[in-house]
Here is the input.
Amino acid sequence: MNYIFLLIVGLLTMSATSYAQLSPAVQKVREYRMAHEHTIIQEFREFLTLPNLATDSINILRNAQFLIRMMQQRGIANVQLLRGTKSSAPPAVYGEVIVPGATRTLVLYAHYDGQPVNPSEWVEGSKPFAPILRTAALDKGGTTVEFPTGPTHFNPEYRIYARSASDDKAGVLAILEAYSGLRKSNITPTINIKFFFEGEEEYGSPNLGDILATHSALLQSDGWVICDGPVHQSGRKQVVCGVRGDVGMEITVYGPKRPLHSGHYGNWVPNPAQKLATLLAGMKDAHGTVLIDDFYTDATPFTQEERDAIRAIPHIEEQLQREFGIAKPDGAGKNLLELLNLPSLNINGLRSANVGTMVANVIPTQAIAALDLRLVLGNDWQRQIGKVKRHIEKMGYYVLDREPTDSERIQHSHIAKVRVASGYNAQRTPLRHPLAQSVVKAVQTSSEEPIVVVPTLGGSLPLYLFESILKTTTVTVPIANHDNNQHAENENIRLQNLWNGIETFAAIMSMQPR
Amino acid sequence: MNYIFLLIVGLLTMSATSYAQLSPAVQKVREYRMAHEHTIIQEFREFLTLPNLATDSINILRNAQFLIRMMQQRGIANVQLLRGTKSSAPPAVYGEVIVPGATRTLVLYAHYDGQPVNPSEWVEGSKPFAPILRTAALDKGGTTVEFPTGPTHFNPEYRIYARSASDDKAGVLAILEAYSGLRKSNITPTINIKFFFEGEEEYGSPNLGDILATHSALLQSDGWVICDGPVHQSGRKQVVCGVRGDVGMEITVYGPKRPLHSGHYGNWVPNPAQKLATLLAGMKDAHGTVLIDDFYTDATPFTQEERDAIRAIPHIEEQLQREFGIAKPDGAGKNLLELLNLPSLNINGLRSANVGTMVANVIPTQAIAALDLRLVLGNDWQRQIGKVKRHIEKMGYYVLDREPTDSERIQHSHIAKVRVASGYNAQRTPLRHPLAQSVVKAVQTSSEEPIVVVPTLGGSLPLYLFESILKTTTVTVPIANHDNNQHAENENIRLQNLWNGIETFAAIMSMQPR
Here is the structure.
């Protein structure tokens, strides 16, 4: 442990801070939190009952208005909705705390929208927007308990289950409660704080650039700290200096124009699910290596500094294999962190006709695969999509971005409709950047264990926008438990992670002045 | 046309009947129907509003009770529910008309249960159990019209849309209305008629054998005439002497135990949808030929007589390709009828996580494929399933019939759960069998065009049971339009097909005494 930590410390040229020493500000905020757990959770529950799909325009505004009230109640100044040129898009919610004499301004970012939900997939008796308290993770035998009705000290292993409980309303709450804790403890932040809560991150942030450009003067800062994603799988806090880019695509292949009886036509009418299987199978080999031409060629390798940081990170592959039930990972022997610096191609979903109790003996009319491509430094999302499209064409497909016409169907034996969502590129802040160093140092003062410094997360955030539009840089400080089911059914936050997250951001707000 | 017909006539050694001559009984029943279209359709609509999934035990009984009333109102004798030893299974509905002096007894079969429905797949504004009248097929621009409120003569190109409108409540109605027509026209049937309406055909007839065995004395006959499936795609009436067998299976392959963020783990955690695609892709080549070892080896080829009959059937492949929008059929150049005498493997449905508006950036926990295997003479359904299972094992899978345990997950990189539904074998009655010859001759008296005689249908019915349990034989006389969307959303019956079906069964009930 010491050895690993010293490596990180060495790398980042920190020396004075002992990792076993919590800062006084963090200690005060912990006392504040322990005295107010009931009201903190009560407000969080209320927040989680608001459905928050970015495209659900009425509900997403209800979330924004809820946030405005939260911020005003905390004495945050200049609270407002930030919109770009498209008034129908979910607004960002902004507020600020200007500290006399502070020489540094950081923008603290989280997002209040969530991933789509399919309520039928959530464990029986639960609903994505009706938060449930459980004694532990579902797969560890967690059972439902009532939320307490009065002041209490929660078992920190308890979890709250709801959409966005961790991704990313936990981030919003941790930032706001960190400020509450400092304020109620009469501790003045050492930096100017700007709060920025986005409302369409899970939808690919199509309007974030527009919002940043429209409000670039208001958003002047020395850097952004992004609160999103999970802490390291070892349970340690982490600071992340980069993210992968992401772009989603959907491939539809076609069978007969109407569903046909599989008996009357089976063997003669081509089956679209069979075609899709063949198309997808040809995209990866048995090790999960993508077989599409030039798929890996644009990727920029890690620098020496980044490789050193990677080596200092504890290996958790064996733990994860047990936890996920995986006998053999993909990647032909490369470790997880190496693989996260390669672009990926993932099937997110498949659909053709029905299975289970709804199955019927048909030849389906179409089969659909949803894919997402993760991108690393050097990849351009449109170029990456182009490689996949060319591959589909190479497999003999006539590629369209709309439904085929009758005459196209009769001319082309293989037709694929490819729809591409808006995507974005990867971003990485050098480990030696002053923002990275200050944040690492600050976060370390909120942890009794050495924190983990990661050159790039596997997940994605549209961080390239901050560089390209605001000419500023970012570091990411995640707080959620890694087993949080984010993006899926039964999403949850472990209370200890929420508590730790509050302390993490209190440490950032009270970081050592430069 | 004449040439083809003469071939069929020659083959079946019929000589006296001219195909252009409708029998007097058929003419009378046509007059009856034309005078009663409104009430016929009114009763049919009421029948179609009853949900009829075999496993929906309350509703399936409501259908049976409705049938009992229909039969009693028509003066059919000895009407009763037939049950086997399992009282919870859907009963068959039985009735009889014993004709003094008749030397032949035929059982007329149809089924009153239907395929599962996914209402969300039906065209907007329609529900599977709320029949809708349309002016033509949906894909031919058919528009919804109100059902008339009083006596009327329907445009025979109109269609009724509802689950089981063709498969197979149309069969039930055609048989009962054929009898009504004869009775109201004071024409005595030439045969003893036993009516047998099954209630779980679409569920694989798990209790049919039991019901037949339990009531074998009551069901004594000279053969069964099965009313199910569509007429020939050319629009001509057809008599079918065999059916394929069928068995359904579901394959589930596994990814991580919980859904994982595709960013944090993409490239490292194996994707179950990718695995399933690879597994399915390996089952068929580019022509749709099944690559599973010995898949085709048990199939009994057509006899010379059957090959001759096949040659007499009009080719409709080009018409179907246009209709279905298919540039290139499967089968490596073999025609549709040849291919229907080969076993098939079809993907009926695929499912893994979500696509479309519900898509999330996850690595799914599992991926499911529903398959059905059609079987021909010579195939045993359990042996055929065994070949597929061995193939999956050969592809490196550990095959289970239940969910894997945690320790199995960590031991085996490829795990497949294979669930097999109850299946049954193919059946074929020789074309020269007296029952086949009598029915062909009778049906021809109800058609102004030469009818089509088919050695085997591509579809399936559990007809082997009649041979094995009752030591009797069957021929199938379908009546539905071939473009009826049976087994799928927007199922429909074209009214002219319903009218023709009534006449077909009137002709069978008044067939020439032997």
User: Anything to note?
Assistant: The first helix of chain A runs from residue 2 to 12. Residues 18-243+426-509 of chain A form a domain with the Aminopeptidase fold (CATH 3.40.630.10).
